[in-house]
Amino acid sequence: MFAGWLAVCSSHAAEPLEAILDRWLTAQTNLHTFSAGFLQTRTLRSLAQPVTTEGRLWFEAPSNFRWELGAPPQTIALRQTNRLWVVYPPQKRIELYELENASSHWRGMLALLDAGFPRSRAELESRYRIERLEQTNDVIQVTLIPRSAAARRLAPEICLGFEPNQNVLRYTIMKLTDGSLMRQDFTNTVLNPVWTESPFVWTPPPGFEVTRPLDRTGVRTGAGKALR
Q1: How far apart, in whole angstroms, are the C-alpha atoms of residue 64 and residue 178?
Q2: Which of 98, 155, 170, 207 has the fewest CB atoms within 10 Å of its CB?
Q3: pLDDT per position in the chain (228 positions), as tens?
Q4: CA angle 81, 58, 27 (to 5 degrees)
């Protein structure tokens, strides 16, 4: 009798991984803002030991994000709607990408930046093919293959690790074409924070040089104007 009861309990506990993924993706419709620290670990074939760097991430649905690597930041990626700024503070240099008229090549690669925040299964599968689902302890890992050829040339495989009980993104892993890995483990995660000041506005100090790599309009010099 006890063995039969145990078998019934086990069958209920073993929820299919596909169902868990669907539940997590459904919960993402309630995710409006997100902030976290992260530890980036880069594993390179040319180095005996991985390289680790701390960073910060802010996200606002559907596609605004701010990603800072280093403390103080050595690189900042700031996206707001159809614009992406990549800022290199030590070099006083900014690259501005206008995304509205960007080629499908660029849009495919840029989709990698917000891969961890799909709004639905339909959106996820429009960009990626789900290769496999695995569970390790309390974390579900979904391995994705980009549908965009341009994205695959940069990162042929992406893994997302999430905790289904809390619907929290725990890590992302990007496998690059050279065989290196870039993993980001998130800490101090806050779901739907309310910001008194938008993290998606950044004012560079005077003297920053701005280039527009996509439209070939040359170089202009910034003068402390807010990036928004």
Answers
A1: 29
A2: 207
A3: 444 444 334 434 578 999 999 999 999 999 999 999 999 999 987 888 999 999 999 999 988 999 999 999 999 999 988 888 999 999 999 998 887 766 665 666 666 777 888 888 999 999 999 999 999 989 999 999 999 888 898 899 999 999 988 889 999 999 998 889 999 999 999 999 999 999 998 888 889 999 988 765 544 545 456 666
A4: 85
- What are the respective helix, strand and coil percentages of the chain, to the nearest 5? 25, 45, 30
User: How far lies 55's CA from each of 77, 85, 151, 183, in Å?
Assistant: 11, 17, 23, 12
SS3 state of residue 124: helix
Domain of 152, in residue numbers: 17-223
**Structure token digits, residue 131:** 């290769």
Please give the Cα distance from 15 to 200 (Å, whole number).
Answer: 39
Q: Is residue 177 part of a domain?
A: yes
Pairing, β 181-191 against β 168-175: antiparallel
Query: For the domain that residue 111 is a member of, what is the CATH number?
Result: 2.50.20.10
Write out the DSSP string of 40-62: EEEE-TT-SS-EEEEEEEEEETT
Q: Considering its fold, how many domains does the chain have in total? A: 1
Q: Does residue 7 form part of some domain?
A: no
Short-list 210, 204, 206, 202, CA closest to 93 = 210
Quote the DSSP letter at residue 111.
G
pTM of the shown model:
0.83
Whether 228 maps to a domain, the answer reads no
Question: Do 184 and 40 touch, CB atoms closer than 8 A?
Answer: yes
